[in-house]
Structure formats: structure tokens, C-alpha cells
Design brief:
The protein is an alpha+beta fold. It folds into 5 domains: 101 residues, Alpha-Beta Complex (DNA Primase, Chain A), CATH 3.90.580.10; 121 residues, DNA primase DNAg catalytic core, N-terminal domain; 120 residues, 3-Layer(aba) Sandwich (Dna Topoisomerase Vi A Subunit, Chain: A, domain 2), CATH 3.40.1360; 71 residues; 133 residues, DNAb Helicase, Chain A. The chain contains 28 helices and 18 strands. It starts with a strand and ends in a 7-residue tail after the last helix.
Amino acid sequence: MKKIRYNDDLLGEIRQRNDIVDVIGEVVKLKRSGANYFGLCPFHNEKTGSFCVNKERQTYHCFGCGAGGNVITFVMDYENFSFPEAVEHLAKKVGIELPEYEETEEEKRGRTFKEQVLECLKTCAVYYYKRLYSPEGRLGLEYLRKRGLTDETIRSFGLGFSGRGYTDAVDHLKKKGFSDEIIDAAGLCNITEKYGMSDRFFNRVMFPIMDVNNKVIGFGGRVMGDGEPKYLNSPETVVFDKSHNMYGMNVARRSRKPYRIVCEGYMDVISMHQAGYTEAVASLGTAFTPGHASLLKRYTKEVRLTYDSDEAGMKAAARAVPICNSAGLVTRVIDLEPYKDPDEFIKGLGAEEFDKRISEAENSFFYMLRYFEKDHDMSDPEGRTAFLKRAAAYIADIDDEMARENYISATASKYAVKEEVLRRSVAGAMERAEIRQEAESRSYFQEGAGRRSSDKADSGSDKAERYLLTWMCDDERIFEAVKPYISPDDFKDDLTRRIAGKIFEGYEKENLNVADIITGFAGEDKAGEAMAIIDAHMDVSQSDDERSQALTDLVIKVKKAALDRMRTEDNGMDPLKKSLEEKKALAGLKNIRISV
């Protein structure tokens, strides 16, 4: 098998030619604020942009969930790529040719944990597919054929059957050489003290979930009979995040249509693909999220929502519309009446009528106003006033000034209200939203809301180490000031010692680059952890004297913690000599005075 061999110089060139703001900006709406760019984090759901991209350092860090790294690790996490795949993707993006070599046996054995999990899921998908066509899979096959699916469609989506044995899949995977740890990490089993390891999926039609690169990352299972729950999905794993993947996107991403159709469930997507609508996708047993909108934006500028026509479906569409709009997607809503879902509609009225409904899909703004109307008595002045205030608040969330003006005019005309009155109401709503957003931002960045969760488990010396490493990365003068007192060996664990070592090495070679430091940890899935360690921000509004005192305190804390560890470690040193060395070192701490 051919693999890519790359050295630090090659990785540095790939990283430098893929500007992180440009790469992340393709999938995240970024706004510049000072030296940084901020947006909504693509790795967790949030309403306030705590995701920060630093152009100078070529790094990103989310103060909400702790994700962080450089352009290579972003592609790894966002695309679910391994380190080599991310490097290859970025190299191809900028036209860099990568040298190949034959993979050694040792390298094969050392493949990442994530790659082993993906291989396990792929093996299990093949197992489920073959079982569907076995005598035991008869019920599942009959169910799929009753739903009108052809063998070609079943094969195309890799549909399968989990069987009735409690350990059949687990036993099969173990025979294929997968360890208990990998099977568990893939989300394919349940483990209890009483029964040990058993299959997670039992007596279910199986829907393999694939990422955009056609890798199996999880499963959905529909029970046969009256079992509960009716649908069971894989849990969140190292490769499966349901809020950032969509069912059918591996096929829909290649569609030439200028829009994508968003459905509710697996069968909706499969039925629509079979009918020729290969642009259809669905969220994975969860409400529509900013992560889904971000994924869609990579392949289209426009979305058609085709949720069920019942009350629950209307609510789901109303939740999805503002999320799509915030991501910059033009959004319309398809009317499915008199049928409940697209599968029933196409079978009842045919593809030609469905095409007509797609072309006549309602502008999402007017859909939302119509949805708001249901909650208000429009014949009552108070109900009408409450509705118009709600409409004004919705208009206030529209970023584009021209679009906002057009919707003010359209709403005023439709609901017979003076345009100037509505405009004042919108302006008031915008002012209130701005005040609220500023307060939320202060909560994140001044009080450190996103950092508190990670700091709780830290001792004072842990935080001191992070702050010291951050300051050393940010300012060479600080590194020079602390170098006489601190060495990489003074840091607590392997990761912080290695980061410190890279900082010392970088300054000594006069080419320190934070993004390069992070690259060294990307292949170990520790880039986010490393980024959090060297992005622990302190109050930068201090005077020079206050900074010097704070820096002195940090060095003393780190050094004292290192001495405490030395005292308890058995390093073979004569006890008397060890005691004398310790006293000498402790006395030296009192003389540390650092100025910057």
C-alpha cells in the first residue's frame, strides 16, 4: 500500500500555503474583530461566537468546547480525516505533489486508533448487509421491499440486518481481529457487569451512516416488530458526531442541482434518491444544528426543507429556518399537503407534481411569519401587536441591510402596518439584541466562561504552566526572561514537557511557529489539547510592573511544583545530597525577580 512520507519542511509549506482564515472561512462565517476572526464553532452548538481564528499564529481555538489547532487539525476534525488524509487534501488544494513510499509492517501496526475504529465499522456494515440476504434477514428484507425499495437501492445504501443473536456481531468482529476496546469505541456493543459484551443492535434493519468521504461512521437501526425504541442510533464516538453529519450527503454532495433537499429521516432520503432526487439529505435522529447548516454550505447556497406536514414537522422546519439563514443559506419550505412526508407524496401524486412543489417552495421568511400567526389571534389588537413585535424581532436578525429593508416593506404591505412604525420596532429589536450579544460576549471572553470548565480540574501549578507556556509562545522577550530559571523538565507531564521543548527549540533556531508546534501533535489526536495549553489567555491590560510580578509568580509556582515532584520521586540520588539540592533550589526561588 502506498503512503505519503513528509518531513517538517514539507508540512510547513503545506500549512503556510493554506491560510487558515481562508480554509475555515469556506465553512464557517467569520467576522474580523481586531487581530482575530470570530464565528460560531463548527464542533458544538452555540449562539454566541466563541470560535476564534488567529491569522498571525495560523491557529484556531474555541473558548466554548476547547477545540483548537492549526489548519491541518481543523481539516482532520471537520472532514473526519486521518492526519495523512488531511495533509494530502491540503496539498492537493494548493497544487503540492507529495512523494509516496511503501508502508512498512511497523507502520501498518501503528495506524491510528481512529482508523481502526473506521475499519471495524466498515467490517460490521458488510456483515449486516450479507445477513439481510440470509434466511435470518427475511423479515428485514420483506420490510424494505414493502416500502418499495429495489435491490439496487438496498445495495447502494448498504442496508442490512442485525439479526436476533445477542452477540453475533461482536463475535464476528472479534474473529476478524478487532479488540474489545475498538468494538466498544465504534459504538457497536453494550457492556454490563451481568452479561458482559453484547450487540448494541438487535433484530433491526440497519442503515449505515456514511460521512462525505463514504466512510461508515455509525448506524441507525429500525426495529422489526414492537420493540423499543423504534429507531436506535449509534452513540457519539471518536468518528461519529450526529450534529455535524447528514444521512445521504456522501451522494448528495455530488448533485448538480443548485439546492439540497433536507428531509426528516432515513427512509425519506432513500425513497427520494430512488425516485431520482439524489440531492436529498437528512439529519441523524437529532434536531437541525448549525453544524448541519455548515456542512450544507460547503455544497450549496440554497436549501429546500421538506419536513413532515404535521405539527411536529412544522416546528422542526421553524427551528431549522433561522439556523440556515444564519449560515447564509437561501432557504425555502416545500408544501407536502395533503401528504405527511415526501415518500407518501411521490407515491401518491408522482414526481412531476413533486417537481412543481419544489419550484413553488415558499420563501422561508413568509413561512416563518405564517408559523408565528398560528400563535396569535390576528383579529384581536393585542394579538396582532404581539405578532408584529415578534415579526420585527425576526427581521432584526437579518444581517443583510438590503434584505432587511425589503422584508420590512413586504411585511408592512402584507399586514397593513405603516412601514415607518415597523422600521422603528425593528431598530429597537436590533439594539436590544446587540446589548444582549455584548453581555454574552463579555461572559465568554472577560469572565472566561469557556475556560472555567477545563480549569476546575487544574491545580494552581497546572494553570501556571499553561499561562507560562502561552506567554512564552506569544513574546520572545518573556522566553528570554524566564529561560535562566525554567527548563522543559520543570513541566509536569509528557505533553507540557514536549510543548516546552518545542518552544525552547523554536526560539533557539529563531523560527518558532505555534502552528508548526501543533502539527507535531496532530497525528496523535492531541492537537486540541496542545492548543488549549498554549492558548490560556490572561489579563493583557496589566502594567509592565504587574506583568513582571505575575510572570515571577508563575515561574516560582512552576519551579516549586517541579521541586515537590523531585522530592517524592526516587531518582537514585543520595538522600542527603538530594535534601541539600532541594534546600538550595528552594532558597533560589526567593531570589527570582523577572522584568519584561
